[in-house]
Design brief:
By secondary structure, this protein is of the alpha+beta class. Helices cover 33% and strands 13% of the residues. Among the domains are: 87 residues, no CATH class; 123 residues, ABC transporter ATPase domain-like (Helicase, Ruva Protein, domain 3); 63 residues, no CATH class. The strands form 7 sheets. Strands 2-1-3 form a 3-stranded antiparallel sheet, with no helix packed on it. Strands 4-5 form a two-stranded antiparallel sheet. A two-stranded antiparallel sheet has the order 6-9.
């Protein structure tokens, strides 16, 4: 056995002080690693006897040590300190004891309590009171109503909250009649966040016109708003106070909406959030590079080992296919963490379309309303190919569209003429493309056949000298 770092025989164990902490360990085995030559003796089954003994000793040590063992080396140089390595079967650090549960898919979902950041509940952002919204005009004085929420609450700058600010100014030596911009950072911080709980004597005039005074604990404008927002049950008050809040990245997860345990799981040095922040084309290339495969063919060196590739084979296949569907519908420029409310109508439809392709349903009627909206003309062919693929597996697609390429690819065209929409309209023409093009009553047919065209102007209009400048900046965290 080993007691406090010293090794003893079991029958020579030292007497321990009961009032002190001791480290008592069982020495299970001492093993000298020998290098076997081909002519040395092996077991009958061809296995190395040292390897078998080592496996038995490790199994025994793990059982005695509650799934934790220590392996110590014995240096050949007596002056050299031995090295020790701690190993554990548990999902825990053997040194500090930090542990995580068994890793499951829900650990990587911000929609699951097991994966969501506890501070922002998986939103990646928190609502905080913004000093710039609380005091929007720094050129105003406190007496003129610079503290916007308190003016709205009191209906004036000289009400109850105004009396508090006057008392605060008198106590700490600044004036409520000077612009807020002239106050020092310490004085502004005092107004916004309070004086640390110290009391303040406030003089104010009652409804009967008599002067009164009382002592309060000044909490600060922003803590006051936080408390009122948390305590009220009135939707009106919450809406009024909420106008002074702004959305910021969660300080706990830094905008990544997952727990630290999930963010600590890395593949090729990247967490799941790192991958979702890539464009679809980048993440698809990364997924293909993991096992060196693209479209089923080996293309280059692999990131994963042979064993890891065997484990991840089906998962990587699904990832490549789903990302490939997004590329097929022309959404290769999106990032996977894009917020749904930032997508155009056409982009949202094409995402749902990519989902339907992945489900491989048959016998379904799909109705799409202008799916080419927001799509560059050069990507039309990919979208049309995707629609044809969905048709070919046994589905029916009705597409409301004005795009010429889509009409030329359609099996049947229905031209709804003048008065369409709320006035009902009428069917001017229907049939395959040649029939529509030959129908002289169809305005659509006129343009498809070339009887009518919109000419390119010979002269372009002169510019007005104004220009739109687009400046790139780091995008805020969002999710689809």
């Amino acid at each position: 056995m080993r007691v406090n770092g010293a090794v003893y025989d079991l029958d020579q164990a030292p007497k321990l002080d009961r009032y002190k902490k001791h480290t008592v360990e069982v020495v299970v085995d001492r093993l000298v690693i020998r290098h076997h030559s081909p002519d040395q003796e092996l077991h009958g089954d061809g296995t190395d006897p040292d390897r078998a003994r080592l496996a038995d000793s490790v199994e025994t040590a793990l059982k005695l040590g509650n799934s934790t063992i220590t392996v110590a080396t014995v240096p050949t140089d007596p002056d050299q300190a031995p090295e020790e390595f701690v190993f554990s079967e548990l999902f825990a650090c053997p040194n500090c004891g930090f542990s995580v549960g068994e890793i499951e898919p829900r650990n990587f979902s911000f929609n699951s309590p097991q994966g969501a950041c506890p501070a922002c509940t998986g939103l990646g952002a928190v609502q905080e009171f913004d000093p710039e919204l609380v005091i929007p005009n720094r050129d105003l004085t406190l007496a003129e109503g610079a503290v916007q929420p308190w003016v709205r609450a009191s209906q004036s700058a000289s009400g109850y909250y105004g009396s508090i600010l006057e008392a605060l100014a008198k106590e700490y030596g600044f004036s409520v009649k000077k612009p807020v911009r002239s106050l020092t950072a310490e004085q502004l911080d005092l107004i916004l966040y309070g004086n640390g709980g110290r009391t303040l004597k406030v003089n104010f005039q009652g409804h009967d016109g008599r002067s009164r005074s009382h002592t309060i604990t000044f909490e600060g404008v922003i803590p006051n708003l936080k408390r009122r927002f948390a305590e009220t049950s009135s939707d009106y008050i919450r809406e009024e106070i909420g106008r002074y809040m702004t959305q910021r990245p969660c300080p706990t997860c830094g905008g990544a909406p997952l727990k630290p345990e999930a963010l600590g799981v890395l593949i090729d040095g990247r967490s799941i959030v790192d991958v979702t922040r890539m464009a679809v084309t980048e993440s698809l290339a990364w997924a293909r590079a993991l096992d060196g495969r693209g479209d089923g063919a080996v293309q280059g060196p692999t990131v994963l080992s042979e064993r890891e590739r065997l484990i991840a084979r089906q998962v990587l296949k699904e990832i490549r296919e789903r990302l490939g569907f997004l590329v097929d519908v022309g959404l290769d420029y999106l990032t996977l963490d894009r917020a749904a409310n930032t997508l155009s109508g056409g982009e949202a439809q094409r995402i749902r379309l990519a989902t339907q392709i992945g489900s491989s349903l048959m016998g379904v009627l799909y109705i799409l309303d202008e799916p080419s909206i927001g799509l560059h003309q050069r990507d039309n062919a990919r979208l049309i190919k995707t629609l044809e693929r969905l048709r070919d597996i046994g589905n029916t697609l009705i597409v409301v569209e004005h795009d010429e390429d889509t009409m030329r690819a359609a099996d049947w065209i229905i031209d709804v003429g003048p008065g369409a929409g709320e006035h009902g309209g009428r069917i001017v023409a229907e049939g395959p493309l040649p029939a529509i093009a030959a129908n002289k009553d169809s305005l659509t047919g006129d343009y498809l056949s070339g009887r009518k065209a919109i000419p390119v102007p010979d002269r372009r209009r002169a510019g007005n000298g104004k220009a739109l400048t687009i400046t790139a900046r780091a995008s805020t965290t969002s999710r689809t």
